[in-house]
Design goal:
Layout lengths: L3 E6 L5 H18 L15 E6 L5 E8 L8 E8 L8 H17 L5 E6 L3 H5 L4 E9 L2 E8 L3
Parallel strand pairs: 4-5
Antiparallel strand pairs: 1-2, 2-3, 3-4, 5-7, 6-7
């Protein structure tokens, strides 16, 4: 599947892009996962947003990249999501590969990355070199595990 990427700071997003991001995040995190939570956490304004679109212009995957000091001491990736339209097609792997490329380009090759992964996705993130830190916890009643991709 061919994905067209856009990578923008919050201030560069169009209203349509922001709406598509919010719609996809709510569709998956709130409705599909049946988890009412406060998605607007004031971090979006400090983030860069990686959006993956189909040929026809439908947003099917997304994540946000946060600089050091916003969520963690390291750069972090969050709100990683792929639409049910493309799940199982490898789009999630394309998204993470592209996110790590963008981090390297923006923050440098030696930048470590920390994530809060839904625990059932540990193996997925391990395939990119992330390692668990041993910190598992409930976030909005969903088991999460802190993971680190160390580049130092």
């Amino acid at each position: 599947m061919t994905i067209h990427w856009k990578y923008k700071a919050f201030q560069e997003l169009t209203l349509e892009e922001l709406y598509s991001i919010i719609k996809l995040r709510l569709e998956i995190f709130v409705v599909e996962q049946n988890c009412p939570y406060q998605d607007a956490d004031d971090k979006d304004m400090k983030a860069h947003h990686l959006m993956g679109y189909t040929q026809s212009g439908v947003l099917v995957c997304y994540c946000r990249i946060l600089p050091q000091g916003v969520s963690y001491a390291e750069v972090s990736i969050g709100r990683v999501v792929s639409s049910s339209l493309v799940r199982g097609s490898g789009v999630g792997k394309l998204l993470m590969t592209e996110a790590l490329k963008m981090i390297e380009k923006q923050f440098g090759i030696t930048t470590s990355v920390r994530i809060s992964a839904q625990s059932y996705l540990i193996k997925f993130y391990e395939s990119f070199g992330f390692k668990t830190t041993g910190k598992e916890y409930l976030e909005d009643d969903i088991p999460h595990t802190e993971m680190l991709l160390s580049k130092n």
